[in-house]
Amino acid sequence: MLYRKYQPAPPLQPFVECYFVWDSEQNLPEAFRVESPPNGFGSIVLNYGGTYAIQNPKHSVLEVPAAFITGQATHSYQLTLHDSIHMVGIVFKPTGLSNLFGLPMYEFSDERFDLLAVLGEKVQGLYDRIGEAPDMATRVTLLEQFLLYRLSLLKNPLNRTDYAANLIVEKRGVININELIGDLYICRRQFERQFLHKIGVSAKYYARIRRISYLCAELASNRWNVSDWHEIIYKAGYYDQSHFIKDFTGFTGKSPSLYVKSNIELANYLRDE
Asked: Can you list the pairs that 101-107 forms with residues at least 24 positions away whose Cβ atoms lie under 8 Å?
């Protein structure tokens, strides 16, 4: 499988983590399944390949629209894909979707909503143009033009909530939220309300998501020596083994040792060129 990332233009970098194109080079085996831990980023995805479904704690089976928008994944989820994969999408910074489109992100957690229903009929033309584009670069350019137009309509500047969410990402979730609120000189109630609106979960829960996301990425890519769990626990910012195991199992549904042996994470199948 081919998975290629593209970086956004400078004006969009505060809002967009990356664009991506994902293609299968041949037809998939029947009911091809992969899993993904929560990563802390919302996205918009346009699918031109076979249909697919997701399973998560909220949905036993959710058929995914051809063009969809999704918010925070609060736990690991599984994808079941059919036929072929031809997708292009936008991965947003924590507050990017809310800022560019004015969306209350708590409504989008663990969901895949039809993009047309959320943003209106104007995105149908975008979907059609991207589907007719001759190559990957052109598809990404069309997505970026769409976002640049949305940016031109944006009146509100980034605020301390955006800064806090990005700092949680930068610190890989290892951060004291109470101290962060104090450092920002912001009302706790106002901060919690804005954070839930812009990101979709509380700041403390978001920090846990980012810590698990980083940990799973490192384990799946074999960058850490899994024979020394004490070192992994320390690197991930946990104070003791029981806390680490409880948190990891709660998010992924697997113990850390089982995850290392049997994970079918999406990252294992992607070839980034």
From this structure: 101/150, 103/69, 104/197, 105/42, 105/71, 105/72, 105/196, 105/197, 105/198, 105/199, 105/200, 106/71, 106/196, 106/197, 106/200, 106/201, 107/71, 107/200
pLDDT tens sequence for the chain (273 residues): 788 899 999 999 999 999 999 888 677 777 788 888 899 999 999 999 888 899 999 999 999 999 999 999 999 999 988 888 899 999 999 999 999 999 999 999 999 999 999 999 889 999 999 999 999 999 999 999 999 999 999 887 789 999 999 999 999 999 999 999 999 988 999 999 999 999 999 999 999 999 999 888 877 766 556 667 888 888 788 888 899 999 999 999 888 888 877 766 655 544 444
In 3D space, the residue among 108, 77, 74 whose CA is nearest the CA of residue 209 turns out to be 74
Q: Can you give the length of the chain in residues?
A: 273
Q: What angle do CA 1, 13, 220 make, to 5 degrees?
A: 35
Candidates 236, 181, 175; CA nearest to 206 is: 175
> Tokens 């605020």 appear where?
159
Query: What does the alpha-carbon distance between residue 206 and residue 214 come to, in Å, rounded to a whole number?
Result: 12
Domains in the chain: ranges and CATH: 2-154 (2.60.120.10), 160-268 (1.10.10.60)
Tokens of 45: 């995805």
Beta bridge partners of 55: 78
